[in-house]
Design brief:
By secondary structure, the protein is mainly α. The chain has helices at 2-53, 60-74, 79-90, 101-104, 112-119, 121-129, 138-143, 165-180, 191-200, 208-221, 225-228, 234-252. The chain has one domain (2-252): Hypothetical protein af1432, CATH 1.10.3210. 66% of the residues lie in helices and 0% in strands.
Length: 256
C-alpha cells in the first residue's frame, strides 16, 4: 500500500516541479522583455537628443543602423549579434552632443582644432554608454567605429583583428551613409562614389569581407531605399531644420 502511494505521489511531484520550472522561465522571459523595452526607450531618448542638436545628421544614426544590420544579415550573423549592431548604430554619434553646434553645421572645412574636437566624439560616446548595462558590447562598438584596418583611425589607432568585427561593419555602414548624405559643406555624393570609396580601400581602411557584403547587398537590391534616401536637396535640408526646431520646442516643454 505504501509503495502504491509512493508511485502515485512521484508523478505529481514531477508535475509540480515541471510547472515551477516553466513558471520561473516565464518570469525570466518577462523580465528580459521588460529590460529590452527599457533599453529601447533609453536608446530612443539618446537618438532624439543627437538629432535635435544637429539637424544635418537627422536620421543618420537610424539609417546607419539599418544598413549595418543589412550587411550583417548578408554575412549570416546571428540574430543576437545583429541586434547588438543595431543598438550600436542607433547611438554611434551620441558623443557629438559634446561638439559645439557651430562646428557640426559649419559650411566650410574644419580647422585642425575643430577637427580634433570632432574626433573626440567616439570616446565621449563610450563614456556615456559604458554606464548602461547592455547585453552586447555597445559602448566598445561605438568607441571603435572610426578605427581603420591599417591603424590610421581614431581614437585608439587600432588595426586589423584588434577592432571588433561589429565595429568594422558599423564603420563601412557609416562611411557609405555619410557619402549619401547632404552635409553643410557639400551635397550628397551618390551611391556610385560611396561604393567606389569602400572598394578601393578594402583591406586598407575597411574590412574586405564587410565591403564585399555591402557591395553584394547593394547589387542584389539594385539601389534600395536604404541607399537612395540620403540623396537630399537643399529643400529637404530646410525641412530637416524645421523638424529639428519642432523637436526642440516640444522636448523643452516635456511634450515628447
Amino acid at each position: 500500500m505504501r509503495q502504491l502511494r509512493q508511485r502515485v505521489a512521484e508523478p505529481k511531484q514531477e508535475q509540480v516541479a515541471t510547472e515551477r520550472k516553466w513558471a520561473r522561465r516565464g518570469t525570466l522571459e518577462q523580465s528580459f522583455e521588460e529590460l529590452r523595452r527599457s533599453l529601447k526607450g533609453t536608446i530612443h531618448a539618446l537618438v532624439l537628443a543627437v538629432e535635435m542638436k544637429d539637424p544635418y545628421t537627422a536620421g543618420h544614426q537610424r539609417w546607419v543602423a539599418g544598413l549595418a544590420c543589412a550587411i550583417a544579415r548578408e554575412m549570416s550573423l546571428s540574430g543576437e549579434k545583429i541586434e547588438g549592431i543595431r543598438m550600436a548604430g542607433l547611438v554611434h554619434d551620441i558623443g557629438k552632443l559634446s561638439v559645439p553646434a557651430e562646428i557640426l553645421s559649419k559650411p566650410s572645412q574644419l580647422t585642425g582644432t575643430e577637427f580634433d574636437l570632432l574626433k573626440a566624439h567616439p570616446q565621449v560616446a563610450y563614456d556615456i554608454l559604458k554606464a548602461i548595462d547592455f547585453p552586447w558590447p555597445v559602448a566598445e562598438i561605438v568607441l571603435q567605429h572610426h578605427e581603420r584596418m591599417d591603424g590610421s583611425g581614431y581614437p585608439q589607432g587600432l588595426k586589423g583583428d584588434d577592432i571588433l568585427f561589429e565595429a568594422r561593419i558599423l564603420a563601412v555602414a557609416d562611411v557609405v551613409e555619410a557619402m549619401l548624405s547632404h552635409r553643410p559643406y557639400r551635397p550628397a555624393l551618390g551611391i556610385d562614389k560611396a561604393m567606389e570609396e569602400i572598394r578601393k580601400n578594402k583591406g586598407k581602411l575597411y574590412d574586405q569581407d564587410v565591403v564585399a557584403a555591402c557591395r553584394g547587398y547593394a547589387a542584389k537590391n539594385q539601389g534600395p531605399k536604404v541607399f537612395h534616401h540620403r540623396e537630399r536637396s537643399e529643400d529637404v535640408v530646410k525641412q530637416l531644420n524645421g523638424e529639428a526646431k519642432w523637436r526642440k520646442y516640444h522636448f523643452q516643454r516635456g511634450l515628447i
